Each structure stands twice: as structure tokens, then as C-alpha cells.
Amino acid sequence: MAELIDRPVYLKQLIQNKDVDLVKIVTGIRRCGKSSLLNLFYRYLLDSGISETNVIHMNLESLQYRNLTDYLAFYDYVSQRIPAKGKTYLIFDELQTVAHWEKAIESFRLDYDVDIYITGSNAYLLSTEFSTLLSGRYVEIRMLPLSFREFLAFYEFDLSVTVEEQFQRYLQFGGMPILREYQFNEARSNQALEGIYSTVILRDVLQRNNQADQNMLQRIVLFLCSNIGSIASPNSIGNTLASTGGFSEERGKNVAGKTVEKYISMLTSAYIFYPVSRYDVKGKQLLKTLGKNYIIDIGFRNMLLGYRDVDRGHILENIVFLELLRRDYRVYIGKVGETEVDFVAEKPNEKLYIQVTESMASPEVRERELRPLQMIQDNYEKIVLSMDRSYINSYEGIKALNLIDWLLNDRSDQ
């Protein structure tokens, strides 16, 4: 087994949920580290004195389990291995390969003294049948690629490399853990990302949606990658693609919008993109139209489009969005009158308004970024994140923070 590198934020969540009577489900895009996390947890269980016979750890994508394709065979196989004494920890990796696996999981819960942990690489794992059967009896732990803090822990940098240069590498290569093997070799890293991306598209999108048109799917992916952080409706995306020969004319623009919506939903289910809704800050309501889509990892975007420094503003916005998800915020795009706030981030007892920009140096940019925040009348925290290192740390109560410092100063996991 390759050397395991700690992901303390996620391991801590598993440990906090240990022995709680809920099924623990770790979700996330393929190769973001779910299997390694379960291996770390397995090691933690053994280190804390639990006997190896009381831990059943299976990766269902291994060919040794090729006959366990349905829930009855799976249930029988595992049941025979559960010892009569003591609690047994069941750890199942890539469980979506077993048809109706949720029936077996519910039965283990009822029939044995077990604590269950599972992973899956697409949201079909949490589909309707499953949610109905296990409603209220599972906790989802959403795993994302490396944060910038984790990235710095994963890679060894020479002391002469500044944190800004390290961040530049993060912007270029992203946070998929496997890339550590290639130590910033661009060609090899792109090959690895391409392999992961192709597997996700093939296994988690096309195999599950056999009516899908691979060419159309790819064109929508490229459109979303090129327009990260831009507001767009499925209809407007459909119209743009139609005007470049994306849809046959007789199907009409209306169908184009519905088709785009369906494809975006497939990509969301495979954890490649995250859709974000708009929230009317003054009217305090969610808006049904014109959201944004952010990609799960900037490395994929750079692999598909080529790395272009001109898009830095939107890349930074994408990185802030993912960081807010990691910190357990519910994230929206804020509409304030005719203007927009990049992010409204909420927790049950907390709210943040955040603007993201490359620099606040020019008066026009300052005016554009501050105005929406100044229009919000409540007393929740308002922040502008930029790459500036300036002595100005506040504009009339609106905090101005360096984005790298903000990424490295997460108080939520202290």
C-alpha cells in the first residue's frame, strides 16, 4: 500500500461519528482521497485496540468481490464474516457497484452490532430509494480535493519558495492528491488528471445515462469551464451551443435548455461541478433562475482548457467557493438590487458576505467590489478577499483580507 498521508479534517469527522448509530457515508469525486481516508480510519481502529477480526474492510471495485453484484450475495458474504462477540466495524469502499446495496446496509444495522462506513463516487449513492430506506439514519461527509493548507502539507517545498509561489502552483495544478507523485511535472500531471476525468465521465456519467451524447457532454463541460463564476441559465448555454452548431435546429431552443439542464445535473451527480443558487439579500429569498457553476478542482479546468493567467479572478473565486464548502457553509450568490455579492455563506448561527477580486488597487475595482457590500444593511461580517498585501485592512467596517492568509487561517478545525 502506498504511503498514507493524513487528512486530519476528515479523519476527525469520522472519529467524532464513531459508534454513533448512523451510517457514515463519505462522498466525493473519484481519486479525491476517500479510499485513503478509510484506510487511515481502519488503521486508527486497530491502533485504538479494536481486534482485526472485528473490522471488515472491503473495496467493492476489487475483482476479488466480482461476484457480489447484488445485495443478497453481498449480505450473505459479509454476514458470514461478522464475529459473534463485540461490535464489528464495516468499511465498504465504492459500494455503488452492488445493486440495491442499501437493503443490505439496513439489514446489517437491524441484525448485528455494527458501525458502518461507506464511500461512493457519485450522488446516485444518495438517490431517492436509499434516502427513503435510510432516512434520518445516515450522515454524509463530503470529501473535496486538497485545500491550500493540505496542499502545503502534502508537498515539500524548498525554504526559498515563497507562499505566493506555492499558491501559484496550487492555482495551476489544483488539489487532486495523486499529483503529488509527479512533483509538478506538467505533462505527467495532465495525463493523470485526464485519466481521472475520463473515468468519471465514463463510469459515473455515461454508464449511468446511456442516452447521453458524449460529444454534447464534453461541449457543455468546456463551456462551464470557460465560464466559471459567470451567471448563466441552461437556456442561455443552450442558445450559445446552438449558435455554434450544438443542437439540430428542429429541436428548438426550449429543448436545448432542458437538455443542458439534464447534462449539468449528470455532471453535478458525478461531483465534477457544483451548482450555486442566487439569493436575494434584501428580499431574503432564493431565486429560481440564473445560478453559477463551479468546478470541483481547478486542475481539471486547466487540463481541459490550458492554464491561462487571464482568468485568475474567476479561478480565485472558484477556490474561495470550495474553501467555504470545506468550512461547512451553505453557499449562495448574493443579489443586492441590481448588483451582486460573490458569496453569501451561512451556518445556523453565522453569516458572511464575501467579495473576491485579484486586487483592490484601482479606484474603479474598489468601488465595484465595495458597493454591493455597502448596500447590505444588516450587521453580519462583510469581507473582500484579494491578493493584495496592503496596510489597509478595512473600508468603513468592511474587512479587507489577503486571500492566502484567509485560506491558511481556518478557525473552524482548531
**What helical percentage do the residues reach?**
40-55%
Unreliable stretches (pLDDT < 50, length at least 5) are: 249-253
What is the number of helical segments per DSSP (H or I, 4+ residues)? Answer: 15
Oligomeric composition of the shown chains: single chain
Strand order of the largest sheet: 7-6-8-9-10-11-13-12
Please give the radius of gyration in angstroms.
23 Å
Distance between the termini: 30 Å
Query: What's the helix-strand series?
Result: HEHEHEHEHEHHHHHHEEHHEEEHEEEH
- Broad structural category: alpha/beta
Describe the structure.
The protein is globular. By secondary structure, it is an alpha/beta fold. The longest helix is centred in the middle third of the chain and has 21 residues, at 186-206. The chain has helices spanning 8-17, 34-47, 71-79, 101-111, 128-133, 148-154, 163-173, 186-206, 214-226, 234-243, 252-269, 298-305, 312-326, 363-374, 403-408; strands spanning 23-27, 55-59, 88-93, 114-120, 138-142, 273-280, 285-295, 330-336, 339-347, 350-356, 381-386, 394-395, 398-402. Mean pLDDT is 92; it is low at 249-253. The strands form 2 sheets. An 8-stranded mixed β-sheet has the order 7-6-8-9-10-11-13-12. A 5-stranded parallel β-sheet has the order 2-3-4-1-5, with helices on both faces. Helix 8 (186-206) packs across helix 12 (298-305).
